[in-house]
Design goal:
Structural class: mainly alpha
Strand content: under 5%
Helix content: 55-70%
Oligomer: single chain
Distance between the termini: 55 Å
Shape: globular
């Protein structure tokens, strides 16, 4: 029943939102109910700060296995986020640069 719910959430792109709201101890339990490729897709498609949060809920060995299955660039950026202390700005930051064209500033 839980697996079917998670599968439905993935199909409507809500899995990340739900998985970041459940108790931390439940994240590994719930994600193990999913097809591993679907969870990897969630990790690959969601914002990096959310992916690092989800990965942090796993022990180090499981986390390394998951990271090794992601594209190299994505894995490297997530490893960088995971290297910062928990609850630090570095762990929660958005790694995508933001800029405004000079002509739009006053």
């Amino acid at each position: 029943e839980q697996r079917l719910l998670l599968e439905a959430l993935i199909s409507v792109d809500m899995a990340t939102e739900v998985l970041t709201k459940v108790p931390e101890s439940q994240v590994p339990v719930l994600t193990r109910l999913l097809d591993p490729n679907k969870f990897l897709n969630v990790l690959n498609e969601c914002p990096e700060d959310h992916a690092s949060y989800l990965l942090f809920q796993f022990d180090e060995i499981e986390r390394e296995v998951l990271l090794s299955q992601l594209p190299t660039g994505r894995s490297r950026r997530l490893n960088q986020l995971l290297s910062y202390p928990e609850d630090s700005a570095g762990r929660m930051m958005d790694t995508q640069p933001f800029s405004i064209p000079e002509l739009l500033t006053s």
